[in-house]
């Protein structure tokens, strides 16, 4: 079933996010930017956690998460251990919510139009994996450039 594949992919990629954050040798470098690098790895991590907790947790799982998107890009100097905890909590939440979705739920229209058009929940969950990986790649590159 697609739900098991989605759970596996989210788990794999969120665990990669944890690994990337943990790999920073100098914790301060998580928050560095340079020239054309506008977002720090720490802020990208907060953005991914906020994005998934909102679009999967709140919208599909009816959690009480309240997104504060502006803070995802403005907060600074959150300890690495706290970022890792937030990612771990997101892994648990995604698995729980996806486990509760039926094949029929995935075929239903997603309640919001964050991309500007109607889509199924399944389509949007696949989109969110792409979004996660886009920023995961940015974090990897950020670490290799700026954590020296």
Largest sheet: none
Distance between the termini: 43 Å
Radius of gyration: 16 Å
How many helical elements? 6
Shape: elongated
DSSP helix fraction: 55-70%
Please trace the helix and strand order, writing H or E for each element.
HHHHHH
Beta-strand content bin:
under 5%
The chain-level mean pLDDT equals 97
Give the helix/strand class. Answer: mainly alpha
| Total number of strands | 0
Task: Give the low-confidence spans.
Answer: none
Describe the structure.
The protein is mainly α. It has helices at residues 2-22, 41-61, 69-74, 80-99, 103-107, 121-146. Helix 2 packs antiparallel against helix 6. The protein is elongated, with a radius of gyration of 16 Å. The relative contact order is 0.21. The mean pLDDT is 97.
Present the secondary structure layout.
Elements: H1 2-22, H2 41-61, H3 69-74, H4 80-99, H5 103-107, H6 121-146
Q: Notable features of this structure?
A:
single chain; 148 residues; mainly alpha; 6 helices
Compose a concise summary of this entry:
This protein has 148 residues and is an all-alpha fold.
């Amino acid at each position: 079933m697609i739900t098991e594949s989605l759970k596996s992919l989210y788990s794999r990629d969120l665990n990669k996010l944890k690994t990337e954050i943990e790999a920073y040798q100098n914790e301060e470098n998580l928050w560095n930017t340079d020239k054309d690098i506008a977002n720090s790895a720490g802020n990208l991590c907060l953005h991914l956690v906020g994005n998934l907790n909102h679009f999967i947790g709140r919208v599909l799982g009816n959690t009480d998460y309240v997104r504060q998107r502006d803070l995802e890009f403005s907060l600074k100097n959150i300890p690495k251990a706290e970022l890792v905890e937030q990612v771990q909590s997101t892994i648990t939440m995604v698995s729980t919510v996806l486990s509760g979705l039926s094949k029929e739920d995935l075929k239903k229209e997603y309640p919001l139009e964050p991309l500007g058009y109607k889509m199924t929940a399944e389509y949007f969950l696949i989109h969110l994996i792409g979004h996660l990986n886009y920023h995961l790649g940015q974090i990897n590159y950020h670490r290799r450039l700026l954590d020296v």
